[in-house]
Every structure is written in C-alpha cells, then in structure tokens.
Design goal:
By secondary structure, this protein is mostly helical. It has 10 helices and 2 strands. It has helices at 20-28, 37-50, 55-60, 62-68, 74-78, 82-89, 98-118, 121-126, 149-160, 168-177, and strands at residues 134-135, 181-182. The model has no long low-confidence stretch (mean pLDDT 96).
C-alpha cells in the first residue's frame, strides 16, 4: 500500500535519487517549457558546461555559476573582459574550462545580437517548434536519441549566429532542459 502514493519519475532520475537538486531540476524544469532570455541563457550555459561531464557536477555548481556570471544577466556577461576571465579561471567553485568560459561570454554577446534581430532569444528559439513543446511520448529511456533533426537544425542556426559549444547533442540536451522537447517517460508524474 505504501507504493501507491509514491511519486513516479523518469528512470534516469533514479541514478540521482539522493540529490535534491537533480530531483528539483527533473520535476520543475526538464521537459517543461522555459521562457525568458536570462533563464534560457542560464540553461544553455549549463548545458555547455555539462559537455563531457556529469550533469550532477553541473547542477551542484549551479549556484556558483549564477554568482560568477551575474545571475546570467546578458549585458553584464557580454561585457566581461580579460580581468573577469582571469577571475573566473581562478574560481574553484565553478568548472574552470577556458573554452567553456570564453563560450559563455561569447554566447551572451551572440544572444544580444539575436535579441536585436528577433526581439528576444525566447521568440527566436521557440519559433523552431511553433511555440509548442514536442512530446516524444517516451516509453523508456532507450527511446531517447542523443540528438535529432531539430537539434541539428537549431545547432547549425546557432552557429550561424555566432554561438559556440552548441553541437547537435548539446543542443538536444538544451532543448530538453528548456522544454522545447518533452522526453519525460509517459509513466512519469511530471510528464
């Protein structure tokens, strides 16, 4: 009888059952439509830092990234200079990868250009899915591919607009995190 009231989540979250941060991310963000340029910039940046690392590592450093990057305020990050870069490279609370730090600054600058052209990054991004999440009706984690044609298209367009560190696999993860793609298992209470 106890299990009748147990919350059902995607199988992948079981790997992180002891992490409240991962559970909160799964329940409140991943696969749920996210909006606002600052929020989308944060999620995009976190995905670029995750490349080659565990998502748990990135989530555990999320608060430190927010402090280091002015809560992902686009203008402040875009204006970061070499002194800021060196400060970040010496900040042990974040992932100190030269290329990823530089890409965060670069991507803030690219996002400001997108805002000037499209009104907002939110509008630019969500137009790829006509403003509606794509629900893949996932039955098991084996149904989730590492990327798809949509992610390849968006990745290519992001690169055309000057973004870095957003290949098709990272872009697919970003689309999941931002809720443009809903890959929650159909049995998940957060689907």
């Amino acid at each position: 009888m106890e299990n009748q009231n147990k919350v059902k989540r995607c199988a992948w979250i079981e790997n992180y059952s002891k992490s409240e941060l991962m559970t909160k991310y799964h329940d409140e963000e991943w696969g749920h439509p996210q909006h606002g340029d600052q929020n989308l910039f944060e999620l995009m940046s976190l995905e670029t830092y995750q490349s080659g690392l565990s998502w748990l590592t990135v989530i555990n450093k999320r608060a430190a990234f927010n402090r280091a990057f002015y809560n992902y305020d686009l203008e402040n990050v875009a204006a970061m200079d070499e002194d800021d870069f060196e400060r970040l490279m010496n900040d042990a609370s974040i992932i100190r990868n030269r290329l990823k730090i530089r890409s965060t600054i670069n991507n803030a600058q690219a996002m400001l250009k997108i805002q000037a052209e499209f009104g907002s990054f939110d509008d630019y991004l969500w137009q790829f899915v006509n403003g509606k999440s794509i629900d893949h009706q996932v039955k098991s984690m084996a149904d989730i591919a590492p990327t798809n044609d949509l992610a390849k298209t968006i990745s290519k367009d992001l690169k055309k607009h000057g973004f870095k560190f957003l290949g098709p696999i990272t872009t697919y993860s970003f689309l999941q995190g931002a809720g443009l793609i809903n890959d929650h298992e159909v049995t998940c209470d957060f689907h």
